[in-house]
Amino acid sequence: MSKVEFNKETGPREVFCGLTSIVWLHRRMPDAFFLVVGSRTCAHLIQSAAGVMIFAEPRFGTAILEEKDLAGLADAHEELDRVVNDLIARRPEIKTLFLVGSCPSEVIKLDLATVAEKLNKRFLGQVRFVNYSGSGIETTFTQGEDGALKALIPLMDSSNAEKLLLVGTLANNVEDRFKKIFKNLGISNIESFPPRQSTELPKIGKNTKVLLTQPYLSDTVRDLKHRGCEIISAPFPLGIEGSTKWFLAAAKAFKISELKVHEIISPLINRAKLALESHKEILKGKRLFLLPESQLEISLARFLHNECEMDLVEVGTPYLNKDLMKEEINLLPDNTKIVEGQHVEKQLDRVRKSNPDLVVCGMGLANPLEAEGISTKWSIEMVFSPIHGIDQAADLAGLFSKPLKRNQILTSKTLVTH
Amino acid sequence: MELTLWTYEGPPHVGAMRIASSMKDIHYVLHAPQGDTYADLLFTMIERRGQRPPVTYTTFQARDLGGDTAELVKKNIKEAVERFKPKTLLVGESCTAELIQDQPGALAKGMGFDMPIVNLELPAYSKKENWGASETFYQLTRTLLKNKVSSSDKISPLRWKELGRRPKVNILGPSLLGFRCRDDVIEIQRILSEQGIDTNVVAPLGASPDDIERLIDAEINICLYQEIAEASCEWLKRNFGMEYTNTIPIGIKNTIEFVNEVHKKLDLPLTNKKELENKSKLPWYSKSVDSNYLTGKRVFIFGDGTHAIAAAKIAKDELGFEVVGLGTYSREMARQVRATAKDLNIEALITNNYLEVEDAMKKAAPELVLGTQMERHSAKRLGIPCSVISTPMHVQDVPARYSPQMGWEGANVIFDDWVHPLMMGLEEHLIDMFKHDFEFVDGHQSHLGHTATKTKDFIKSDEKKEKNSMEGIIWTESGRAELTKVPFFVRGKVKTNTEKYAILRGIPEISDETLYDAKAYFS
After folding, report:
1. Which long-range contacts (CB under 8 A, 24 or more apart) does B105-114 make?
2. What is the pLDDT of residues B181-227, one digit of tens each?
3. In Å, how far are A320, A383, B263, B267 from B256, measured between CA atoms?
4. B318: nearest Cα among B423, B410, B397, B204
5. What is the pTM assigned to this prediction?
6. Contact B1/A80, CB-based, under 8 Å?
7. A9 chain-B contacts, CB cut-off 8 A
8. Chain B contact for A110 (CB, 8 A cutoff)
9. From the CA of A21, how many Å to the nearest CA of chain B?
């Protein structure tokens, strides 16, 4: 392991909660509905984080707790029953209904597992009910996906067939690219989790080799291990380096030679390097500060340093699973400062003091930092954009070079904000 | 429990944030979990604010719940006070913290600070955003002025005469995330100063706690948005005798009535009465012959109470529209909206469910929708032109240009914003009419999306959706062909009416003649 500097910080945080992951999960599985059992705040959070108005009836919603629901839990369970019945009558095409716990439902100890069990019996053969918590007292942002996937594992049948299982939500086009490359490598049995249809869950067992596409799936990984799956240890497929090592790790698990991998991906690498050049020109030597939010920060730091030659000032992450991240941490330069957790005020003090060229942060902080003359990239874009794989390396770099490029074009530095 | 797919208003603590963020020298310590920090982006992204909202979130976690969350609250309060040095501190909790009952307000008051502390109790499970904003502004006003109640004589609206100066008023209610508040304030101040009236304080937008303490230097209060300021105005009236205005100056008639009301309250002679009607272009543009086609246009209105009521009045009296639907999500203003609807012989829709609004819109078959950004989407789906008149805020509702809703310029803005989509609608109709001409280029991009021109799909999808009304009814080729000739924006209404007529008369098959029979019957 390279000599990185680990720090922990506690204090007021500025991050999304796990409910936010519904914004991409509901698009990944269009036959599923995500019903948050929570407050008006939860409903408002999801619609605000999605950043857009709803163009059609959405596949997520909130059963908003009211005063009378807090008075007696028995009534709350009954009420939830009623809401679910209404919803299914209205949306008969729903195949899987996720009951998503929230901060208030956790605090009043609403037992969604029991509710789900009862509903499963009633709607047997029609709708499946799954429950997990996206609450902000337990989860941060992307951890919501971890919870949702973990909740699906018990529904997955067992199979001892040898297969490669890609775990973590990917953009559909990226997923297709990956599958094509793996097929060219000679791995034919490839499945994805989460699948594109919630009912088409992959079967798993002792010959399932799991390759993670996202770094925030600690609980899912643990449960997949319990089901006998083998976890392929690899960095994450962000950038050329990460993707190459990721393909190599998969190939090794399937006893495919390194030579074969290089033969197939070297044309991809060559053109990706070419595409990366113009971005590297802008990013080279620029100082980067990553605030914690998506848990992608360490992989992004690795890519932006190793392939785009940026200097790392501080790498924040809301949560650090050293075991899952060990391949990534190994690739970081010595003395990288990793900070797990957050004290947002102290961290912003450090941002101002270190005067970085670019800060990766949440949407609440971006404009205020821009107003102070610091360029920013909002982190939520990383989870909505296709950034994985060799072919996307230049696009990924582009997310960071664009604000800097824009900053060069717009030269007024003393703007009055309104 | 209420199933909500989308909500017009946020929770009440977001209302409190609107007050805190609108003001200077205030800090709000909010006992809340980390996810609640999303609310910052409403200000930094939608309003494009260059500062973070002055809010410290305690961001307690599950593991804190077993321990001492009260200590965590105190630690955060202490740090926030040291760092931000506010002149007044707001302390409150969001939905989850309300359940664990740490009483952060009481804790803060026990910490020995010199500054005034406002303890906000905003019931998250029964109230919403605007209520929270109103309550916060009221509690803040009360906290900062309650010591002056006994020592002050009642404030006469005529005091300015005794003091030998121009009359002074406060403008109360404008806040961040309020619809066009930034520009309304400028417009109203301009109108008042033209009349020789000075603005004492604008609050909460841009005010500091010191300004709140100065509210009683004015003779009367202008209650600009009832949703936010009525409770405070009422308290100032009860305790200091300060009169406040009831007229919301949106539209020409209302603006003139507003100017009259202010003059009457201050006993100030109105010298330029005749000029007032010509301060805006709306009356003449509306009278101009090319506006003839606006007569009787069917308009559907939905928004917050203030803007929906004002829109109904303008639509009917100033533009000659027919109001075919009126509703609000502001339950606090339901009574007034119902009264306005009653005057228009329609029934008000009071709901927080956008799908109900969409259904009502569909049934009313309007030619123009005046609503929130959500109604803009619903209208787009239905192929109806729409103009946005109310919150919830969208980045588009914070235009770079000066764009008030109130006063003379507000009336100009309203004329343009409401009439232009209709003109586009007309254009749409022409395109629809001429689309069979050989010159017509296929692939024309309509601003209404593709729903507007696809007659076939329209009928097909309607058949599916409106199965009940279609029972036993068959559209013949000639009936179908005739229906496609009806302008798309009334086609839905014509279709429903014809079917109603057919059922009424027991006609099993609708032909082109049935269409005309129905038309005559309903006219």
Report:
1. B107/B70, B107/B73, B107/B74, B107/B77, B108/B29, B108/B73, B108/B74, B108/B77, B111/B74, B111/B77, B111/B78, B113/B81, B113/B89
2. 999 999 999 999 999 999 999 999 999 999 999 999 999 999 999 99
3. 63, 52, 11, 16
4. B410
5. 0.91
6. yes
7. none
8. no
9. 12
